[in-house]
């Protein structure tokens, strides 16, 4: 059975050039470093460089929305050293990339439960979101302390509170209402979800939003992932979409 994807709520027509929403589960940083006998954090640092290069290449690749899974609700179970190292890396990325993002028209948002992050990082997040709020060329969203189920739980709580307050009624709740209570309320649904490093799990990423997305799993480890790797994936995706259109008409 074929669906008219463009009719899905919150979804831009995937055929619109340049309006693609690509989400990425950036996996394999640890293995990349360990393969070389280096600490895992070196892999994360290289991963952050790959993020910068990919964001820069988004306009050429036709990606308008890029959503990256940087830290899951489960990642707190890692060693204190790795968790602190990652948090430091996120803060440094925001500080170092702020000017470039402003210059290149990148709007940076964060999704996930930020209340568990340390106060300085929360302040930095609020600052960069405000600084880049007017940008519209590339919409970069970073998932930090994010879990799809956790997001749905938080959205449900907020809806129940609004029902109790009388500003929402049970009958009013539709597909679109739920989308509006999620962290991604300002984003279209992803067209494509890419996972690197050969793992073929969804791992609690964008569970609601990716209902109609295509999935691509590549063996490339995230620190080896270049704009050219993404270009190859997108070419294959375009062929799939064309075939899809062909069957539909
Ligand atoms: C998964 O690889 C990757 C992470 C948990 C962290 C992702 C973070 C970055 C790429 C750093 C920079 C990001 C931004 C947005 C600035 P893994 O450690 O699970 O790898 P493994 O499966 O090989 O152990």
Automatic annotation (TrEMBL):
Query: Is Cell inner membrane one of the keywords?
Result: no
Q: Name one GO molecular function term.
A: transferase activity
List, alphabetically, the Pfam families matched. Answer: Prenyltransf
Provide the E.C. number(s) assigned to this enzyme. Answer: 2.5.1.-
Active-site residues annotated for this sequence:
27, 75 (proton acceptor)
Any idea which positions bind substrate?
Answer: 28-32, 40, 44, 72-74, 76, 78, 195, 201-203
Enzyme type, top EC level: transferase
Xref: InterPro entries: UPP_synth-like (IPR001441), UPP_synth-like_CS (IPR018520), UPP_synth-like_sf (IPR036424)
Instruction: Name the cofactor(s) required for activity, per the record.
Output: Mg(2+)
- Report the co-factor binding details: Binds 2 magnesium ions per subunit.
UniProt KW keywords: Magnesium, Metal-binding, Transferase
- Keyword Metal-binding assigned: yes
> Where on this chain does Mg(2+) bind?
27, 214
List the PANTHER family hit by this protein, alphabetically.
Answer: DEHYDRODOLICHYL DIPHOSPHATE SYNTHASE 2, DEHYDRODOLICHYL DIPHOSPHATE SYNTHASE FAMILY MEMBER
Q: What exactly does this protein do?
A: Catalyzes the condensation of isopentenyl diphosphate (IPP) with allylic pyrophosphates generating different type of terpenoids.
Which family does the record claim for this protein? Belongs to the UPP synthase family.
User: Quaternary structure?
Assistant: Homodimer.
Record protein name field: Isoprenyl transferase
Q: Which organism is it from?
A: Roseinatronobacter alkalisoli
């Amino acid at each position: 059975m074929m669906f008219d994807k463009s009719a899905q709520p919150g979804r831009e027509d995937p055929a619109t050039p340049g309006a693609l929403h690509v989400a990425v589960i950036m996996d394999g940083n640890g293995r990349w470093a360990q393969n070389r006998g280096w600490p895992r954090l070196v892999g994360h640092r290289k991963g952050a460089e790959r993020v910068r290069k990919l964001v820069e290449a988004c306009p050429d690749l036709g990606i308008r929305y890029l959503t990256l899974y940087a830290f899951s609700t489960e990642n707190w179970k890692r060693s204190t050293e790795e968790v602190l190292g990652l948090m430091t890396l996120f803060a440094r990325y925001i500080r170092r990339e702020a000017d470039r993002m402003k210059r290149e028209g990148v709007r940076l948002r964060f999704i996930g439960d930020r209340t568990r992050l340390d106060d300085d990082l929360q302040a930095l997040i609020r600052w960069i979101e405000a600084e880049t709020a007017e940008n519209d060329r590339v919409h970069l969203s970073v998932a930090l302390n994010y879990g799809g189920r956790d997001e749905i739980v938080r959205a449900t709580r907020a809806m129940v509170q609004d029902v109790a307050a009388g500003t929402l009624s049970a009958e009013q709740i539709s597909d679109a209402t739920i989308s509006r209570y999620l962290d991604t309320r300002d984003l279209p649904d992803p067209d494509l979800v890419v996972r690197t490093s050969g793992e073929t799990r969804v791992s609690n990423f964008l569970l609601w939003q990716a209902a109609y997305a295509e999935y691509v799993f590549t063996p490339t480890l995230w620190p080896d992932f270049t704009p050219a790797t993404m270009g190859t994936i997108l070419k294959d995706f375009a062929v799939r979409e064309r075939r899809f259109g062909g069957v539909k008409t």
